[in-house]
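ESCALATION

Customer reports they have been waiting on this structure for their group meeting. Please prioritize. Original submission:
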Amino acid sequence: MKDKQPIMRIYILSVFLFISGLTFSQNYQQYVNPFIGTGGTGHTFPGATVPYGMVQLSPDTRIDGSWEGCSGYHYSDNRIYGFSHTHLNGTGVSDYGDILLMPTMGEPSFDNKIYSSTFSHANEKASAGFYSVKLDKHNIDVRLTTSTRVGFHEYTFNESGLANIILDLNHRDKLLEGYVRVIDDKTIEVLRRSEAWAQNQYVYARIEFNVPLKINKEKTIFKGVNGEYHGTELAFSFSKKVKKGEKLLVKVALSPTGFEGAQLNSTEIPHWDFNKVKKAAEELWNKELSKIELTSSDKNKLTIFYTALYHTMMQPNIAQDLDGKYRGRDNKIHQAEGFDYYTVFSLWDTFRAAHPLYTLIDKKRTSDYINTFIKQFEQGGRLPVWELASNETDCMIGYHSVSVIADAMVKGIKGFDYEKAYEAAKHSAMLDHLGLEAYKKQGFISIDDEHESVSKTLEYAYDDWCIAQMAQLLDKKEDYQYFMLRSQNWKNLFNWETGFIQPKKNGGWDKPFDPKEVNNNYTEANGWQYTFFVPQDIEGLIQAMGGHEKFEAKLDEMFNSASETSGRHQVDITGLIGQYAHGNEPSHHVAYLYNYVGKPEKTKEKVHFILDNFYKNDPNGLIGNEDCGQMSAWYVLSSMGIYNVTPGQPNWMTSEPYFEKIKVNFEDGTMGTIDKSTNDRMFGLSLNEMPDKNYFIRNHSVVPVIVAESKAFQNKMDISFDSQNNEVEFFYSLNGSDFKMANKNTLTLDKTTEVKLYTKNGNGQQSNTVSAKFYKKPNNFTIDIKSTYNPQYHAGGPEGLIDGIFGTENWRKGDWQGYQSQDFEAIIDMQSTREISQITANFLQDTRSWILMPIKVDYYISDDNVNFTLFDTQDNTIDPKEYKSTIKGFKSVKKPVKARYVKVKATNFGKLPEWHQGFPFNGEAFIFVDEITVE
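Update from on-call: job pushed to the front of the queue and completed.
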């Protein structure tokens, strides 16, 4: 029976388009509260910046690299280490904090425990483009403001004496190269090249003081004769005697290209009038914030809204000098022609809502972003994934630049080369890294191929759909058909029996499966949260689940389940409503899916609940990481009653607006209005016309499933074939033989065998080929593990340690057993007394992930499993500070001895040391062990 089409409640939208004489004189910056999100898990910072500015001048209260301190500031702290000029807004990885200055008095010190100062929130203020605080230690009042490329400091010394300004280049991340040149007693030049998340970041600075200062202390490795200092340790104290109440002013101009660029950029502020710069910053914010005008009597909601809009405009950041020069992905200096070059693209987050918001209110910058993408493709070899300071971090998954490009193209945004953008997008999709080779070959990624296999399959499929929309717009029919077919690959991981999109391993479903479990098969999420990520084919997902009623019931079950997950603790998964997690991005579109089954009242209920409960006018006012504007962009769009569920599709999904009236001032001088009676799915959109041609789309044949009890077997094992489609024939190959049709769906294996399998339907349409390899165990040994492995890292159970299958450096694929806070101990029973001359146990180290080599491994032997004697001890030789993923076999070779039982005992590293990023969490190391061999 065919489901009835949904009857959707239509809200009436009044859109008034006229040429507006708006001068952006409204004072919307008064509603901005930069402290929202600085507590809890928001990871925002309160300092001074202007829209999309190069400078983020803010206090640093965290220097330990902790997750809560990614932005450099956390509201729970009471100590300031200084004021640095670059900060990230709401990320989950720490970086930036460049060019730190700190005012002190008396004898200067470069020990940050000494030059830092306590402070009180009672003496701290922040607004759009401004920050101030009183430093308790020496009673110094600090005020900060900025232009686009220049930070402006004002220090008021409330006591007389020797005033110092500390410059510490060894602040926060690793200094690779430092250079300071003293031009005169009021001007210095600085280069800070550093390594953290961005592995090779260049920041040039020109620092100017309003009065002459002397160097009264320095720390350097090399000092030249012409006032030049360089090395990997650099700090200076600039000082003068001050009277009570005297002010010192400092301007710091930044550049990514060189000292000449920093000098040019310093001309943005040619004077020393702090209040004039502050007022200019406020005017810039008013201009941008006035793009959306709200009518509301609730000042608290106005503050939440305009702070959210403010957060969306703190990045991406301009990354070129005033003359258009920028540092490209090839680390060379280039000239931007006809566009502005930007950095900080958190695309896994921002493609969902932030970039769709920009297509509505900032088409010019959207074009600039895409021109930046194209230049990064030309100069760096591929489109950005998560670009930071001209470095590709490769953080997160997908190639979501293509989503941003496709969305702009279908919405008619001009100003970039469509053909070049398409070339770059297609290139990203045709690479062979990060699971793409398997994805292209078999139509999905399995656990065996790559970690986070489910998420990568789903997000690649969506991105492929985006490329298909671009291909259709450019009349590339074959490419359109190819990428539309790839966009259906989500179906290869949809389990028709469970109704979830779930991982596959060795040709079949990975078992056991718990949709609440957070593990390495999903990206910062679980099966519940990713099952609904098919934005390109929502109707297809509805039908796969059995129609509208069952889909609605599945959504209800998601929101009404217990608000707890199983498996790995994932700090990003917050804001749970059942299994919906608003604190992280994969869930952000899900509340709107009720609209697709004719239940807009449920969309409104969920959306308004989130607006009411997960966004507050408070330091803890964000339920999860701000993630470079994405969390706030969701609020901005949803409160307007619109959301782009499928970026690349030129329409909005709608809900009842949160505010009485919303006016959007477009760049062309026109204006659109939304009120409570309203919604228009085409609000503010000007579309590109698609070619009027018949673009036939081939049906997608879902791959078959190979069903087996395990990957390894003792003597014989039966395997079987299964398919979602009962009307198909199976064709298989064993160990490279020719394919033949299966007369029955079951095979018996008695040796190590590689199986390949595909299906054909009645029309002769063939599926992709899946493969699996089954191993006959090399012996009849058994193992008794005395320790308790983490359920996340089981390697298929105890027998996984002696099955002859060796894990690789990519431990996230599931081939290693993990033990935390305990030693590893196991006894192997060889079933009879044998001569033993060699014992090897393989261990893995991935220090960043808390996995360290054991301190030592002891081998014992026994005849009776009661009395054991020491066979040998192997000490670890791998440095725990070696961050590269490393495998070491602790091999012990001795003269042959006879025994039946072998005991392996590995001593855990224990508590993570102070230098480790897990130390602040009182973390303890994992032992990861895979194969144990006895010869």
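Sent to customer with the following note: The radius of gyration is 30 Å.
Escalation resolved.
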